[in-house]
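G.,

No rush on this.
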Amino acid sequence: MTGKLLCFPLLAATLAIAAEPSAFTGTWEGRMNGLQAVQLVVRADGAGVAGSITFLFMQRQDERSAWKIGGKAESALIEPQIKDGKLLFEVRHAKKHGGTEMGPNVRFRVEARSPDELRLFRLDGSEKDGAGLPMVRCHLTSGCAAIQ
């Protein structure tokens, strides 16, 4: 019975962390193929939250070649809001990488897993969002690589 009583305060504390804008504020890095793939910057403002996201495009010559960064796209977060303990936003999206013709906005959801870990999910309308991209908080001491 004691184990069940201890679980409730832990769950309540986790939900409280996820519901606060401070759970999302900061600079976050997601990595794929051993390289920085996404950088999310979230800041609190008078109306809630604001920020930007930068996606780095990965490419390689063939299956045996190492992955390299082949460009980047940065976008302001459109209509960011915290709803049900999750950060929701959209970004503008070009129809082709490097193109100027815009397609429909792309929607994302961010969930706080701990004070230093988020999961980024691209929402494509299906019920399966997958496991999400793990993102870690960048700290002044350990830092994250700056996007050039």
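When you get to it, here's the other one too:
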Amino acid sequence: MTGILIDVTRLVHRFRAGRLPTGVDRVSLAYIRHYSPNARAVLRYKGGKFVFRHAESSALFDWLLALGANGGPLPTIYKGLVTGCLAQRVAGSFLFNTGHSGLESDAYVAMLQQQQVRPIFMVHDLIPITHPQFCRAGEQAKHLARLRNAVRVASGIVCNSQATLKALEYLCHDQRWTLPPTMGALLAPDLPRAVPSARPVAQAYFVFVSTIEPRKNHVMILRVWQMLAAQWGKSAPRLIIIGQRGWDYGEVTDMLEASGVLKRLVTEVDACSDAQLVNYLQHAQALLFPSFTEGFGMPVAEALAHGVPVIASDLPVFREFAGPIPEYLSLGGTDLGEALWATAIADYALPGSARRTAQMARMAAYVAPTWTGHFAQVDAWLAELAQSEVRRA
């Protein structure tokens, strides 16, 4: 296969700032893990694009795969920037950008065209375009620019699900854009397997794993917990919210601060290692995931892979990779949606819950997506792209 370049700009900036990896970051890390033995790193810095040599690339990849924890990357980065100024043969190489990073910039697109690389972009979702009400102001236009540029310059686009691919096809039809070669390949959970350790919470509890932002619907779940507290009193189940605060989370924190009941029943965990997350999952009654919309929804896949029941909103992408296994609930109108969720959670909290037992039985047939399967699809597709371009030449 032709040379492989991996744009690591997003990861370097995030990890140097001490940020924990998001779902998008974990996908990027999986691509580094798979391709790094034969790949070179690309870092965009002050308007330039620097292609590291193999030695500096290997060191930088190792640092990223350690989540920025094994010493400082600065000597490697500085050396890579210096040697990256030298003329290097990159024309014809596949360049992976798996994090949407820089795609809104026409200058970035011009740079890719000038260096004659073959860009492969990962599209994670179209949410800022299809659901702008859940995103920051201006994000709709920015994401539209990203996808316009991706479609214009890409040699190929990988989508994280058929649901995302279908949304991209609809957008291209609506905008009258010509879609380049595309494929949908499901992502894979990669939390470590572990024997459960000490139970982190004595009482029955549920976990909600997500960045705190309006799209994830934390406010509804907190209202549900107020209902459960009114019905159950001190014996109400606990809720563990695991995730960093994203944006527009004020209503969530206001509710937690203003309510003594919620303070007693709800715990917010904003920093959690993979081992801690696995332990929280393995002892939980269920994972809750009431999101309004998703491109994939990695916590759902992670929970099912660890044999943990899931109560989730009924989204097409969940049906795509989880089938009929989770307990799907409509968000419906506010009162109806909250009542449905409160009833299900109350049942799952009971010893010997019939609904929970039924989902555990359904889970016996679950086969989780794997990165091996993902990359088998992507590698075969890349080989086809390379051959088709050879034939055209």
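The longest helix spans residues 371-392. The mean pLDDT is 91.

Enjoy the weekend,
O.
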